[in-house]
Structures are given as C-alpha cells and as structure tokens.
Design a protein that fits this description.
Elements: E1 5-9, H1 14-30, E2 33-40, H2 47-60, E3 66-72, H3 75-82, E4 88-92, H4 98-104, H5 107-112, E5 119-122, E6 134-138, H6 144-157, E7 161-166, H7 185-211, E8 217-222, H8 226-233, E9 239-243, E10 246-247, E11 254-255, H9 257-265, E12 270-273
Parallel strand pairs: 1-2, 1-4, 2-3, 4-5, 6-7, 6-9, 7-8, 9-12
Antiparallel strand pairs: 5-12, 10-11
C-alpha cells in the first residue's frame, strides 16, 4: 500500500515555520506522513533546523509521523523531485533563497512550473481551519484536476466550495448594424461564444458534484479578466485552487498570468495543481 505523504520545504525562516505548521495541519487532515525537507549545500548544516522543526511539529500534531531529510542541492530542484507521489507539497512565499531568490524569482514561482503534485504556497494571515470556503478558479476543461482537488479539499474541511469562472469577449470583426435587434452575424457569434464558455464548467462541476454530494457548491461566471476577480474573492476564502497553465519562454516554462498574479498578491494561500498532459 502506498503511503500518503505531505512534503514541506523549510530553511529556518519564520516564513518556512508557518509553512511547516500548515503542512502539519494538512498531513493530520489526510492521515498522512509529513516529510520535512531542507535543501542545503552541505547536508551537515541541516541538523539544527530539522531538529527544531520536528520538535515543533510533533508537539503540534503528535499523531502525525514526521520524517526529515537534509538534501544537498537547490531548493527548487530538490522539492520538485520530492513532490513526486506526494499528496501535497508546501512552501512559504519567501525564504529558501535569500538574495538569489529575489534576483531570479521566488522558489514558489519557479517550483510551480516543475512540481509533480499539488503545490500549496502559504500566503495571507488566515488560519488553516477557520471555516472559510475553498475557492476554485476555473478556466476550462483542462482544469479538471484542479477542480477535483478543490472538491476534495472542501470535503476534507467541511466547508462550501466557491467556483469562479471568468471569460472575456473575443474580438469580433466590426459590421454594419442589423435591421433586426441581436441578429447580426457578430452578435450571433458573441452569443455562441457566451454559451460555449459558460457551458465549460457546468459539465465538470456536475460530475464532481455527483461524486462529492456533501460539498455545497456556489458557482458564478464573470465577464472580466480572471486574475482581478479571483484576487478580490481570496479575501474571504481559506485557500484558492488554480491549474498550472504554463507559457513558453526562452529561459524556460513560466506560469500563466492567473497563477502568477495569485502567487504574488493573493490574500489567502494558493494551491497550484499541475495540468495532466
């Protein structure tokens, strides 16, 4: 039987302490093992930080099995490797990189493009269990894994799931007004796009609602850019879940604008779920 486990990256900073607290809570909720990882140039340097983490986490959740690993290497590559097969990988928003992290992008941003399991980035000042709903940012059918994770998380927490689906009108070639209202080719094209776009989340949500009948779902579609709408909604949610849409770049893969914005500015923790290829 495969052992369920949660991975957390630490470096002794206050940010990583909060991340490890979140990870311990998540491991307890899942009945999973907690694996605490510290990536350092020399594995001998990891002892005091890992020992301190074990003392704190076992006091917080004595029922959770905590194992540690001091890994030689960079934090992004190390945590991406450790995320293989994990239920969840947890990091903070700063730390684990110092000046290098500021110059070349935070660990969380780079890790989100390489992680092999859901990644939780601890942001905001919410408690892990405060009864707030889970928020799902849904762009399309490719986000089905993210939607499944959001349903499971809402069920584990016993809270409602708020789904926000956002789309904007695509460009339509200018045309002369139609003699009949709302019957021009351009207007028809917009109406067809609207029906197609709004139908995207309904099928996935209907299937998942049948599989998770105890989850109360509140879904809405907004005709604005997804990032601003999601940012505002994160003020009142326990965490937000989005798919890891990637963009090609000459320096390697980059996150799509929605996940990138949330990791920088969300008012609550962010879960980025890899998209199946």
């Amino acid at each position: 039987m495969t052992l369920h486990h949660v991975v957390v990256g630490v470096d002794g900073s206050l940010v990583s302490v909060r991340a490890s607290d979140w990870a311990a809570d998540e491991a307890a909720r899942r009945g999973a093992e907690l694996r605490v990882v510290y990536a350092v140039p020399d594995s001998d340097e990891s002892g005091p930080v890992l020992a301190s983490a074990v003392t704190r986490l076992t006091a917080r959740h004595p029922e959770v099995s905590v194992v540690t690993r001091g890994a030689v290497g960079g934090p992004v590559r190390t945590l991406a490797r450790e995320s293989e097969g994990a239920d969840l990988t947890v990091v903070g928003t700063r730390g684990m990189g110092g000046i290098a992290g500021l110059l070349f992008g935070s660990v969380s941003l780079r890790l989100a493009t390489q992680v092999r399991s859901p990644l939780l980035v601890v942001r905001g000042d919410h408690r892990c269990d405060d009864g707030r709903p889970v928020l799902l940012g849904l762009e399309g059918d490719s986000d089905e894994d993210a939607a499944l994770y959001a349903f499971q998380e809402a069920e584990r927490r016993g809270v409602p799931l708020h789904v926000l689906h956002s789309w904007t009108h695509r460009h339509v070639t200018p045309e002369l007004p139609s003699l009949l209202p709302a019957t021009s080719p351009g207007q028809g094209q917009l109406a067809q796009q609207a029906r197609a776009e709004e139908s995207v989340p309904r099928f996935s949500l209907a299937r998942l609602s049948e599989r998770h009948p105890v989850v109360q779902v509140e879904s809405r579609t907004v005709r604005t850019g997804p990032a601003p709408a999601l940012l505002e909604a994160t003020r009142d949610c326990a965490l937000v879940v989005v798919g890891a849409h990637h963009r090609t770049h000459r320096f390697g893969p980059r996150l799509g604008p929605v996940a990138h914005t949330l990791l920088h500015r969300s008012h609550c923790p962010v879960v980025v779920v890899p998209i199946a290829k």
